[in-house]
What we know:
CATH topology of chain A: Creatine Kinase, Chain A, domain 2
CATH class of chain B: Alpha Beta
Helix content of chain A: 40-55%
Distance between the termini of chain A: 7 Å
CATH architecture of chain B: 2-Layer Sandwich
Low-confidence stretches of chain B: 358-367
Number of domains of chain B: 1
Strand content of chain B: 5-15%
Number of helices of chain A: 16
Number of strands of chain A: 13
Mean pLDDT of chain B: 92
Shape of chain B: globular
Oligomer: heterodimer
Amino acid sequence: MGMAGQANPITVGVEEEFHVVDVQTRHLVPRSGLLLEQLPQDRFSPELQRSVVEANSSPFTRLEDLAGELTDLRRMAIRAADGLGLGIVAAGSVPLVDLEALKISPDPRYEQMLDDYQALTREQLICGTQVHAGIGDRELAVAVAHRLAPWAPVLLALSTSSPYWLGQDTGYAAYRPLVWQRWPTAGPMPEYASAAEYDEAIAELIRSGTITDPGMIYFDIRPSAHVPTVELRICDSCPLVSDIVLIAGLFRALVARELEAVREGRPHDVQPELVRAATWRAARSGLEDELVDPDGGDPRPAAEVIGRMVDGLRPQLESAGDWELVTALTREALARGSSSARQRKVFARDGGAADVVDLLLAETQREDWAGAPAGAA
Amino acid sequence: MEEEFFLFDPRTGRTAPRAARIMAEVRRPDRVQREFAACQIETASSPHTDLGALRRELVRLRSELSGAARREGCRLTACGSAPFEHSASDAPVADEPRYRRIARVYGAIARGEKCCGCHVHVEVPDREEAVQVCNHLRPWFPTLLALTANSPFTAGRDSGYASWRAVAWGRWPTVGPPPLLGSAAEYRATVDALIRSGVILDEAMVYWLARPSHHLPTVEVRVADVCATAEEAVAYAAIVRALVATVLRDIRSGTPPPRPPEALLEAAYWRAARDGLEGEGLDPVTGTPVPAWRLVDGLMARIGPALAAAGDLPMVTERLFLLRCLGSGAARQRAVYDQRRNLHDMVAWMGRQTAPGAVTAVPLLAS
Lengths: 377, 367
């Protein structure tokens, strides 16, 4: 494969959040501070919880390069963690949690959040992966973020990896979105007529005391608060790099298609109440049952909904040079099933949450991301 | 008016799954219903035009049910959240096929904190008008929630919210302000799409903060925590009725529904859940933070004529005065807790407050 398509595909970058666990007890531990001291500050940063670290990739035009850097960053974090008796887990949630042992990061912004949001902050023991697609034009970013809302649940389904929360199986493939939902400003982004109107709405939320800064706009898809991108925020952290690459490839194709639609003035019809319903469905069943098809609103088997989405994006995927890779990764993802299903299988077989943590640690460490051999040709 | 109550074990302060046994012995089975969890029970009053008659019925229902609960060794209690429950409490679900199915489909949401609310039905027989009324009510939900916030405690501690129920309840799909809908046909199409998507099991699971009732010729306003006392519940019903009457006049004179920015409406609702009556509110139309009571004053200015026309103005004015002096349901729970820092005592106090004749003011004024 190569750069057969358009000259300048949209760039994609990824922010990944990792849980920090003790490799002996397999419990979540508030030791991100120690770990971060040994990692480059420009690539790794603290999060709200002291049991979480975040890694930031550069923007790339080739998905293979993105995969390579994500693997490198993980390797770096794993090496640093290793020396401290720690491990890192890329998943929406981990099964072994001791609430009292965990403390919020010592940062004035987070202290303020704890003060403002109380119980919501204390239980925020979840990790997500954010995909950024480069759109220099903020007007377009605002329009596209709203118009893409119906597709976010399908991308969520591909990432579902948070079945356990506060030590229990929730019955959901991803419980993380349900934890998020309790924050103000989470969910599908409303429609704004212009970037100015969007910025004004954010300023109003800050003035009103609902949020303290633009970084606290938690819409499923939003114009980024700090870089010229549109940002997908709904996905759980993914144990396997290949799933992130797949989601990044699909997201940039969706963005490309929607950009064309905006330029051509094609109409759209986003019904937020139905998007929320579809999000719930995806969180509930992941890849293992039905999803709501964004095209028409009917429930269909997940594989069918995803297959239709990929087919529908073929022109954009081909133009970016991603078609072969994305179709191959899609087939693998569907054959493998969601991370949630894999976690539950291990739990049922070996009967222990520790084994689930071991599975997640091992998957997070894997360096043989699926597309590498094919892409290197 | 529908009021949902918890049943608490007086020895532990925790929920007691005794609804089935209490149901078996109440004399008015038509007015008492089971709820989702076996530790919850609901009363449904008859429709009234005279709110004095509504008050008498609510007092009688609370009193009867409270007596039946005592005979079963538990306490009927009007509060939005159970102070010792948490997000993984897993209180047993009522033994009924629909509830068992909901528990299966919704997993951890259904196992989390149980919530008690109060629903006011206001007669609006014309379906088109009922849909319009819901559109016009949207900016007022935060104020209605602030007025009734009565659930600060969860997981054995103060949640930091005046209405934790509003936050916990928000996990269910469809909870939130109803979408702006153009017609009864569009309402039907939206509800059908939600059911077709498989995300809700039936029309009764449309949990919008207001909706045209699926079984009565009414608009059902579902935003409130269950009120601590029957008197507060009646005042709240009067306010909702007057608000519906007021917006009906707007609708009939061709005034379009207000269109608060969606993000601000949600922010205002969140702020009402956090601060209740005692803190800041957020005007969802202008986005300006103001004391919550200022929003109540705005509401009263808006519905004053309708309240006066219904003869409810003196009663509502007096009740709001008492709320201002004594605090909202949430503030009173906190004040009682602060006296002895004993949550168990506070739960017992709530049970006494729920039962008719309980004088809510005394312990607070004495402190």
